[in-house]
Amino acid sequence: MKIGIDKIGFYAPHLYVDMNKLAIARDVEPAKFTIGIGQEEMAFAPMTQDTVTLAANAALNILDEADKQKIDFVIFGTETGIDSSKASAVYVHDLLGINPDARSIEMKQACYAATAAIQMAKGHIALNPESKVLVLASDIARYGLRTGGEATQGAGAVAMLISADPKILALEEKSAYHTSDVMDFWRPTYTDKAIVDGKLSNEQYIEFFAKVWEQYKVKTDASFSDFEAICFHLPYTKMGQKALKPLLPETDEVTQNRLLENNEASKTYNKRIGNIYTGSLYLSLLSLLETKEDLEEGARIGLFSYGSGAVGEFFSGILQPGFKGALQPTRHKEILDSRKEIDVAEYEERFNNTLPTDGSTLELEKEDDPSSIYLAGIKDHMRQYVNDNR
Ligand code: HMG
After folding, report:
1. Residue 65 has what pLDDT?
2. Taking a C-beta distance cutoff of 8 angstroms, is the pair 136, 120 a contact?
3. I need a surface site. Which of 151, 167, 261, 347 has the fewest CB within 10 A?
């Protein structure tokens, strides 16, 4: 039985910062951010958007009523969840009106959690072929103003429907994974900003890719030439190629050129959003599928997932007949193009203006946030969510 991605969509908040302007404000050569790091715009979430609403808005765009009845498992991957106890999946389950006879959980391992969620969904569908699983990957990446990581922040979510006989990508059985206790990036529960050793994190990412690729080759007998493209977790868009390039000499020139060309296509949306942690790899997959026009049915796509701390996995999937008809490039372009730019002063002010953590009541104005699902305030320590479509 084929199991894989039947539907996929993303959502990004309606505000962004221009990376050229951020560079000037930080007294940095703009080319460092736009070429050296590879980011053009950085999505910024207003107070009315948190990880729950971003995920719910992403899922709203892909699900129909029949899907909502079939979904019996909602898995939410995030490292910037809103509660240490209750799963964000439960809020999304309610906001979207999903079949009540369902499981809903949250998973965590830095940027890797959505990959773990997909693997769990695959196992669930193997046992229950009629069911559909909603996998959500949603995060707001914050390092802090004027920090080394600032240029690699972002906000957004990817929603995926995993099912038997998927319309887009059938996942192959074998995959290679690796865990090692590394302090390259982490976020203690008392802070909303990540702590990172940037240089170590880059090194570990590159090392993990080499390790899982080596393991994958042993398990499958595959080589780079078997792949049309390889999508990477993209904390910033230059990262994937930094891991890929050192290994390319093991393949022929035609394959090298193809993988590098497709790597460019796989950065398209990420360049305009930034790091969305758990969703970044899947945003990269969407970029590839929706912007590379000559991709063919039957092509094999590799996926490298990395979550600091650290866990890495390499796995693969085959593009399904008619996959293009199941994508939404026009809607996704519209989400990106209709956003509003905020200047650096407004970004800094908004960055410092966070939700209360002392239980006080807050009512939020939706203002120009066009999202159907948003946070309307906090009362009695409870976030007040609204779905305008209900
Ligand atoms: P930095 O020290 O600001 O930058 O940190 P740099 O000095 O390393 O320069 C970056 C690149 O810009 C270099 O290119 C420079 O040469 C180039 P590279 O050598 O890397 O190819 N450059 C220029 N290019 C053109 N014109 C110029 C120019 N000047 C310099 N004028 C760093 C960068 C990414 C480390 C920092 O932003 C950071 O700490 N970010 C957060 C951590 C991170 O993203 N790590 C990535 C791997 S870990 C991961 O992916 C997991 C993660 O997503 C978390 C999770 O799992 O949950 C982060």
Report:
1. 97
2. no
3. 261
| Cα–Cα distance, 321 to 145 (Å, whole number) | 46
Residue whose CA is closest, atom 53 of ligand 1?
235
Mutating to test ligand 1, I would choose from 33, 152, 282 the residue with most ligand atoms within 8 A of its C-beta, which is 152
**Ligand 1 centroid, distance to 199 Cα (angstroms):** 8
Mean pLDDT of each 10-residue bin along the chain, 390 residues long: 98 98 98 98 98 98 97 98 98 98 98 98 98 98 98 98 98 98 97 97 98 98 98 98 98 98 98 98 98 97 98 98 98 98 98 94 95 97 95
Distance (Å, rounded) from C-alpha 154 to C-alpha 156?
A: 7
Residue 242 annotated as binding site: yes
CA angle 203, 208, 213 (to 5 degrees): 135
pLDDT of residue 390: 86
Do the beta carbons of residue 95 and residue 37 sit within 8 Å? no
CATH classification at residue 219: 3.40.47.10
21 and 140 assigned to the same domain: yes
Q: Does 310 sit in the ligand 1 pocket, CB within 6 Å?
A: no
Greatest Cα-to-Cα distance within the chain, rounded to the nearest angstrom: 62
From 291, 306, 321, the end of a domain falls on 321
Q: Using a 6 Å cutoff on CB, does residue 382 contact ligand 1?
A: no
Give residue-wise pLDDT tens across range 170-217.
Answer: 999 999 999 999 999 999 999 999 999 999 999 999 999 999 999 999
Same domain, 175 and 216: yes
Helix (H) or strand (E) holding 280: helix 280-291
C-alpha 198 to ligand 1 mean position (Å) = 7
Closest protein CA for atom 38 of ligand 1: 149
Same domain, 108 and 89: yes
In terms of domains, do 28 and 143 share one? yes
**How far, in Å, from the CA of 314 to the mean position of ligand 1?**
22
